[in-house]
Design goal:
The chain crosses the membrane at residues 132-154, 174-195. This protein has helices spanning 4-16, 77-81, 124-128, 131-156, 162-213, 217-232, and strands at 18-26, 29-34, 47-55, 58-63, 70-72, 83-85, 92-94, 109-112, 114-116, 238-254, 257-272, 275-288, 299-302. By secondary structure, it is α+β, with helices and mostly antiparallel strands. The protein has two domains: 4-117 and 215-316, no CATH class; 124-212, no CATH class. Strands 2-1-3-4 form a four-stranded antiparallel β-sheet. Helix 4 runs antiparallel to helix 5.
Length: 333
């Protein structure tokens, strides 16, 4: 893998023997990519809809909830056929030949992929597809049905014995099943109305942020994704993560440097004791602006050491030729 923001994860997956197969929706069709290289469909502005986690060929875990405002692009077929010249040795070939480095001199070329747009997603699926929401709705429906049936049986029966108690439970179950769909819609309207208004307010604030600051949104998100990977993969049991939502963006100036604080809602995926589990958490990153023109923008890049100008692999942290420490080569770090 030559994707800078995936290199840390690929090392972790290789160590743990885990393969992740991700499904994308692209123009109404499904495309698949896997970390073991068996599926490498082209993806252009695709939306993630499913991740399947395999270990030793066995499916251990599946995630189905993603934010459809986030679009991902991997090198498309047209881009793969384009001509590219290695800035290190001058070899010229097709872009797809450089995915794992220059075929001639092994110089590391870095391709990044993520494009995140706000869109009109209101997280309806996060509420409606939640098993907790369905269980709570069912319990509320049954309690209401039980009360209604109890009042009806008690007021219409001349006697009240075990047979009548049985009828209450039977009638309550039938009534709850009949009314479940009606209550489900009413509950959804009551719950999702505030959620939708809240998300619309968030979207407006973010749109105003990008318009007002003039910051390159795509490059900023790619830089943020790289820093998030460095943080989460420093934990020995984390094998994957997904940023579910950006809940806050706030810029400020510190020592003359523009900084942006980002509040995230993140899903971390763990491998513990042979089992794969996931958990959600809120996190905050504070990124400062680097005045130098850096990488992790869209397209294919060659990164050079700022001291000796040699072609380097930024993920190794140091220049292999002169030993200069390479902490970050991003516009935002």
């Amino acid at each position: 893998m030559a994707f800078i923001s995936e290199t840390l994860q690929m090392r972790r997956l290789t160590e743990s023997g885990v393969n992740i197969k991700t499904t994308y929706i692209v123009d109404g069709t499904l495309r698949y990519r896997s970390t073991d290289g068996t599926c490498q469909d082209d993806v252009h502005s695709g939306i993630r809809c499913r991740k399947e986690y395999f270990r030793q060929g066995k499916l251990l875990h599946t995630e189905k909830i993603f934010d459809s405002r986030m679009e991902y692009t991997y090198v498309s077929g047209m881009d793969e056929e384009a001509q590219h010249t290695c800035e290190n040795c001058g070899f010229t070939g097709k872009v797809k030949e450089f995915v794992n480095g220059c075929p001639c001199c092994d110089a590391a070329s870095n391709i990044d992929y993520a494009d995140k747009e706000l869109g009109s997603k209101h997280h309806y699926d996060l509420v409606l597809q939640s098993p907790v929401y369905r269980i709570v709705t069912g319990v509320v429906d049954y309690i209401i049905s039980f009360l209604l049936c109890s009042l009806w049986i008690i007021n219409t029966s001349r006697t009240f014995n075990g047979y009548d108690v049985g009828k209450i439970f039977i009638y309550s179950t039938i009534l709850a099943m009949i009314l479940y769909y009606f209550f489900y819609l009413c509950d959804a309207y009551a719950v999702l109305g505030p959620v939708r208004r809240y998300k619309e307010k968030q979207n407006r604030r973010q749109q105003e942020f990008w318009t007002g600051t003039g910051i390159d949104k795509k490059r900023f998100y790619n830089n943020l994704n790289y820093e998030a990977g460095r943080r989460y993969y420093s934990r020995p049991d984390v094998i994957d993560y997904d940023i579910m939502d950006y809940t806050g963006l706030q810029e400020h100036v510190e020592n003359g440097i523009l900084c942006v604080d980002v509040e995230l809602q993140v899903r971390l995926v763990y491998l513990r004791g042979g089992r794969i589990t996931s958990a959600y958490q809120k996190d905050t990153f504070s990124l400062s602006h680097n005045d130098r023109v850096m990488t992790l923008d869209s397209g294919i890049h060659v990164i050079k050491c700022p001291k000796c100008d040699a072609n380097i692999d930024v993920t190794k942290g140091v220049c292999e030729y002169c030993g200069t420490e390479i902490d970050s080569l991003q516009e935002w770090k």
